TrEMBL record:
GO terms for molecular function: hydrolase activity. This is Alpha/beta hydrolase. Transmembrane segments: none annotated. PANTHER family: HYDROLASE, PUTATIVE (AFU_ORTHOLOGUE AFUA_2G14860)-RELATED, MONOACYLGLYCEROL LIPASE. Keywords: Hydrolase. Pfam families: Abhydrolase_1. Residues 24-248 form the AB hydrolase-1 domain.
Length: 269
């Protein structure tokens, strides 16, 4: 299927544009790409225009020569939407994609119809988490991306699913291997440096969906569900770790479709 590109300064952002209707932007996680959403997109495109974007340093997008922040990745999303003359969209961000979505919400709230964080958090890295990022950077610098990905990916699944869903684990590893060393390092630095954005969640008045896996080894429920508010829905995916789009795609699809239908209905009122 054809993919499109848009130049943002010296960087090239790759994306897929499918369907018609309310615009939904799917943003993958760290060491991922648009293929993370392969089971979700066919259902969403039935009633929506769906963009699946490869973040800078990932997938088919280019890797910047210099360091960058989460806000820079959010700016890439904004530039793509501007180039397509899309005034408002719902952003659905997985993990790192959630951090990018929150940064987008901070800078472009007027462009959002809705926001969903899937296995993500508005909290910054803990001190322990920052040490882990530095260890990851050191390992990639010394050994390259393959050993890093081999250690990381099984942790993204629940312990049970990591053993049973071996095809999906291998699928995610294959995507991770294609991430450039500097792309992964740049993203690790950006994630380590990101600020607390809970105030962004608290101040948003659009529909917000927070999705968490019951058995997520990276982001537990209390960090995923950091804000309670009337416009914010909390959804727990059972028998799932950090990768519901691959571990429990039917359940995640159901949750997202309900969320999007509510947004479209509210726009008609």
């Amino acid at each position: 299927m054809e993919r499109f590109t848009h130049n943002v300064g010296e960087n090239m952002i790759s994306y897929m544009d499918q369907g018609v209707g309310h615009c939904v932007v799917l943003i993958h996680g760290f060491c991922g790409n648009h293929n993370y959403w392969k089971y979700i997109v066919p259902h969403l495109v039935k009633k929506n225009r769906v963009l699946t974007i490869d973040l800078r340093g990932h997938g088919d997008s280019s890797t910047p020569k210099n360091d960058y922040e989460i806000t820079d990745m959010a700016e890439d999303i904004a530039m793509v939407l501007n180039s397509l003359q899309i005034e408002r969209a719902t952003l659905i961000g997985h993990s790192l994609g959630g951090y990018v979505s929150l940064a987008f919400a901070e800078n472009y709230p007027e462009k959002l119809s809705g926001l969903s964080l899937v296995h993500s958090t508005a909290y910054p890295d803990s001190e322990e988490g920052k040490v882990g990022r530095d260890k990851g950077i050191k390992r990639i610098n010394e050994e390259g991306i393959f050993p890093f990905v081999n250690e990381l990916i099984p942790k993204l699944f629940s312990e049970k699913n990591a053993k049973e869903l071996t095809n999906q684990v291998d699928f995610v590893k294959g995507i991770g291997y294609k991430t450039s060393d500097f792309g992964a390092i740049g993203a690790l630095e950006a994630m380590k440096n990101r600020p607390d954005r809970n105030d962004i969640l608290k101040n948003l008045n659009i529909p917000v969906l927070l999705v968490a896996g019951r058995e997520d080894q990276l982001i537990p429920l209390d960090r995923a569900f950091s804000v309670e508010k009337s416009n914010i829905t909390h959804s727990v995916i059972e028998d799932c770790g950090h990768m519901s789009m691959l571990e429990q795609p039917d359940k995640l699809t159901e949750v997202l479709i309900t969320f999007l239908e509510n947004i479209v209905d509210s726009k008609r009122e």
